[in-house]
Amino acid sequence: MINGHGDDLHQFNCEIKYNFSSNVYYKGCSPLLLKELENKVFKIQNYPSPAAEELNILAANYFNLDKNQFLFSNGATEAFYLIAQCFQDKKAIIVGPTFAEYEDACKINKLAHRFISKEEIFNTNFENNLVFICNPNNPDGSILSLNEIEKLLKSFPQAQFIIDEAYYEFTNATKPAIPLINKYSNIAIVRSLTKTFAMPGLRLGYVISNSTFINNLLQLKMPWSVNSLAIASGEFIFNNYKTLSFNIDELLQETAVFKAQINSINYLKVVNGFTTYFLVELQKGTASQLKKYLIEQHQILVRDATNFTGLKGQFIRVSVQHSTANIQLIKALKAWN
To answer: What is the mean pLDDT of residues 56-76?
Structure first.
């Protein structure tokens, strides 16, 4: 790990009352899923399947694809590291500012890489490059449309596009890229089950692509990287997906109210985006100063966005929480001198 993840709640133990730094669904893990995990604890007495193959079958049925088009991983992060390892002979382009693990994966695998801004996407030659695009993007919630992604796939057939859809269920402003999987050989989608279903401690992600791409990753993948309880959670999720999913329209309505409240504070400006998490630009002070104040004076944690490559020290990222938490953050922000 080079740049590190933004949710550092583990450093503060019981000090933090309200955690806005994580993009995980704020209502937490479903009681139904927690009960299922209680009932499956006995599975830790045996080894899991080497590559979580049982989840391939369930995902294939759910998405109407072939089971050989899936690879399940120890969170989406493992998938990014496998992909970088697999494409060490290429150069990488990362559309930023964005999730730090793409860059870390490239560095660890000695993969030459460079950043471009989202404004440069359609003026860049991607041919023969490995291209990382987060859609919707973390940290700013910006999006590419399905048509825009397809345009890239058509225009650069020798490029390999990695579309990170970890937060595709946190927006209604764009559509998932799954319909493009069987139309183009130069796309792979990486997803996470841990954000939507609020179980980041279990680590469960997956890749969707053509069978050749998936098989190349499997040749590099460590066996048993997905543990028994993560597999059990995945099985329960794919068998109860709609029941366990949240209502994105309601969540975005809450987000709109929260954004307006933050924008009403004279030294803050919300960066336009389409997700339940978003960037806020400070017109005074620095993100690290504000974060320190919120922790020490109000036991509130926000994400200092400084370590997103391309962002300076005047940005924080927050994710909508329950109304009590949102109100407390607004009060604390108004009180900062």
So the answer is: 99
pLDDT in tens, 241-273: 999 999 999 999 999 999 999 999 999 999 999
Would the pTM count as exceeding 0.85? yes
Residue 1 lies inside a defined structural domain of this protein: no
- Report the relative pairing of strands 113-117 and 129-134 from DSSP bridges: unpaired
Q: Is residue 3 part of a domain?
A: no
Q: How far apart are CA 143 and CA 175, in angstroms?
A: 10
Last residue within a domain, chosen from 243, 267, 284: 243
Angle separating helix axes 323-335 and 287-298, nearest 10 degrees: 110
Beta bridge partners of 132: 94, 162
Domain housing 174: 31-243
> In the prediction, which pLDDT does 122 show?
97
Domain boundary among 243, 275, 309: 243
* CA distance linking residue 84 with residue 76, whole number of Å: 13
What is the secondary structure of 185-217 as a DSSP string? Answer: SSEEEEEESTTTTT-TTT--EEEE--HHHHHHH
Q: Which neighbouring-strand residues pair with 95?
A: 116
| Strand, coil or helix: 317 | strand
Task: State residue 15's pLDDT score.
Answer: 85
DSSP secondary structure, 285-309, as one string = S-HHHHHHHHHHHH-EE-EEGGGST
Q: Is the pLDDT of residue 170 over 90?
A: yes
- What is the arithmetic mean of pLDDT over 153-172? 98
Following DSSP, what letter does each residue of 97-150 receive, concatenated?
A: S--THHHHHHHHTT--EEEEEGGGGGGS--TTEEEEEESS-TTT-----HHHHH
**What span, in angstroms and rounded, lies between the C-alpha atoms of 213 and 207?**
10
> Residue 72 pairs with which residues in a beta bridge?
206
